[in-house]
Amino acid sequence: MPCVDAQAGNRWNIGSIGIARIEERQAPSAFAPETFMTGFDMKVFTAHLHLMPGFYSPEQHRLVSSMHSWLIRANGKRILVDTCCGNHKERPWMPGFHQLNTRYLENLRAQGVEPEDIDVVLCTHLHLDHIGWNTRLENGRWVPTFPNARYLFSEREDARWNPRRNPATDPNRAMSYDDSVLPVVQAGQAQLLSDGDQPLGSGFRIEPSPGHTPGHILVKLEDEGEKAVFSGDILHHPIQVYQPDWNSFACEAPEVARRTRREVLAYCADEKALLFPAHFAAPHVAAIERTAEGFGVRYVPGAAA
Ligand SMILES: [Zn+2]
Fold first, then answer.
1. Distance 216 CA to ligand 1 centre (A)
2. Could you tell me the distance, in angstroms and rounded to a whole number, from the CA of residue 165 to the centre of ligand 1?
3. 11-299 is classed CATH 3.60.15.10
4. How many angstroms is it from 233 CA to the middle of ligand 1?
5. Please, what is the Cα angle at 5 between 69 and 40, to 5 degrees?
6. What are the residue boundaries of the structural domains of the chain, listed by start?
7. What's phi and psi for 189, nearest 5 deg?
8. Which of 152, 155, 223, 231 has its Cβ near the most Cβ atoms within 10 Å?
């Protein structure tokens, strides 16, 4: 599996702010589209296929998706948004994420950044594919991968997934919390955000964006009149721009997820904000436009590293 995307670059700019994509992997999904998305309709999907080159593997009948972090260099800081699945994590219930050994850290270094250089890590939510590289295995113990970083998590999200705060947490979710979030909390590096907290400084806005999970947060960025939204799992695939009512199987509150998705698409279209989702395959970044039917996509390839 290629560790660096050969088809498209991994660097973008919003005003003077540099953004790089740090790839963990890009591959067809483990699930059939009908399983992955509620409401999936192959006829509707096929009608949009020519608008989504590279986002579907017809041989395997799978949506193609990417796992990556966004590295933002702003206000003299290096900020990482979402941290993928991580290496060596026990995920026996999800074979595609089990005991991975990817070149994620090499891809970070290829952007000229060492783990020690990361100042802030922000997880849009605490699902296992957004928290994995929070920690790495050292002498049999999970330790923070980014020793000098402050890790930002939503307070509401922590209340949902921390098994000590919510004993009803699914045991698999509890396991990923305990190996990828708890060690960060125990190291004193976690900061739980309440609504309205804005620790990222000027140009950034963190906002609640519930639906996929109760405490999901997004990050808006603005510099020199240009705008971006780091949208986590509000959308998983470009078909959801055309069909905003299609949720992923993991969206916990379906109606809320649909409303949040429409709000983000409207914001991107009306404010000309580029969309930086967590799982879009190459070219990864999209401009959203209003159309007679709703919304459309114009892809925005990055520059080569
Ligand atoms: Zn995800």
1. 11
2. 23
3. yes
4. 5
5. 70
6. 11-299
7. -100, 0
8. 231
